[in-house]
Amino acid sequence: MPSHYTRIVLNERPPGDIDPKTFRSEKVSFSELKVKDDQVLVQVTWLSLDPAMRGWLRDERSYLPPVQIGEAQTMRAGGLGVIFDKGKNVKLKIGQLVSGTFGWTEYAIVREKDTESIDVPQGLLDIDYLNNLGMAGLTAYFGLKDIGQIKAGETLVVSGAAGAVGSMVCQLGLRAGAKVYAIAGSQDKCEWLEKEIGVTKAINYRSPSFRKDFKDIGYLDVYFDNVGGDILDMCLSRLNRNARIVLCGAISAYNSVGKPKGIQNYLTLISQRAKIQGFIVFDYAQRYPEAIAEMSRGLRDGTIKRKFHIIEGLKNAPSALPLLFSGGNTGKLQVIYV
Ligand SMILES: NC(=O)c1ccc[n+]([C@@H]2O[C@H](COP(=O)([O-])OP(=O)(O)OC[C@H]3O[C@@H](n4cnc5c(N)ncnc54)[C@H](OP(=O)(O)O)[C@@H]3O)[C@@H](O)[C@H]2O)c1
């Protein structure tokens, strides 16, 4: 048993971009970790880094309370870990792999009922449960099917398409028989989307020809929006009748100081009888098993592809998180404890 463990807490709220002062690391005595009867002590093995974390740093009303500054809480994060110790009412066994919201820490105490026990089937990886079979994949699945109502033959446009959510949306769209147009921020990402994922066409929003390339797509039936801002506005000007816009995320606005820039082209929603709707994946918790079953099958038979961007060491989580906002991540951003 170690004498101390490391955790990372919010040091100050960043007004704009996350910087080296945003978080600080602490060494805490292991003896502080005492489990109650219904709790488990988890030794964390993997962490997920997600754009939503930027929102959790804002002291604002949202779907979860803001992370507090200082020692009361570690930085919130989903993760994987193994049960290291447990209270007397806990049924799970020591050594069981679990997922949960463990935070940026080497050890976390949580209630047994706030963990998901995982037995990784053959052909899958433990880290799939932080990607396609975790928040990213579930977001893609319910956002595209429930909010987007995608149908065969329709035109689907996906922004943030090379990322964890976006690449899964592209694949679910193709499986549904849609024509899939992917928007991403580099030539390499576009090549991966066309060659590996098999999208109809990928276009680079940093290219000087982006506006023309975008217009060449024609009109769209579903726009799955991960980025907001100008790209959302452009998509609003290219709607087919009865189009659906899935507001999944708006990463271009997460680091904004003050209010994000508004949209202009919303009158097309009226003329094209279109819908625009936001959603939060946690509202689908009852239906996660349906999505996990479908996506597990695809991962196991190789028809669903995934990519990981792995960072080594908890201490590197604060400097890795900004990669999501610069486009420096190539795949699902995760931290392995070493
Ligand atoms: N509603 C929900 O319940 C829910 C749940 C999970 C995630 N989300 C949202 O889903 C989106 C994707 O999350 P993820 O975990 O899959 O992240 P990700 O796509 O793996 O990584 C973020 C990507 O966003 C792109 N990006 C960053 N800044 C941008 C900008 N200004 N304009 C355009 N693209 C930009 C970058 O790719 P490029 O290199 O292509 O620029 C970056 O790689 C986020 O908006 C997130 O908040 C929503």
Write the topology of this structure.
Layout: E1 4-10, E2 23-29, E3 39-48, H1 52-56, E4 78-86, E5 97-101, E6 107-111, E7 116-117, H2 135-147, E8 155-158, H3 164-175, E9 179-184, H4 187-197, E10 201-204, H5 210-216, E11 220-225, H6 229-236, E12 239-247, H7 268-271, E13 275-278, H8 288-300, E14 308-312, H9 317-320, H10 323-326, E15 332-336
Parallel strand pairs: 8-9, 8-11, 9-10, 11-12, 12-13, 14-15
Antiparallel strand pairs: 1-2, 3-4, 3-6, 3-15, 4-5, 5-7
Helix pairs in contact: 2-3, 2-8
Bound molecules: NADP nicotinamide-adenine-dinucleotide phosphate (NAP).
Structure description:
With 338 residues, this protein is of the alpha/beta class. The protein has helices spanning 52-56, 135-147, 164-175, 187-197, 210-216, 229-236, 268-271, 288-300, 317-320, 323-326; strands at 4-10, 23-29, 39-48, 78-86, 97-101, 107-111, 116-117, 155-158, 179-184, 201-204, 220-225, 239-247, 275-278, 308-312, 332-336. The strands form three sheets. Strands 3, 4, 5, 6, 7, 14 and 15 form a seven-stranded mixed sheet that branches. A six-stranded parallel sheet has the order 10-9-8-11-12-13, sandwiched between helices. Helix 2 (135-147) crosses helix 3 and helix 2 crosses helix 8. The structure holds NADP nicotinamide-adenine-dinucleotide phosphate. Keywords: Oxidoreductase. This is Enoyl reductase (ER) domain-containing protein.
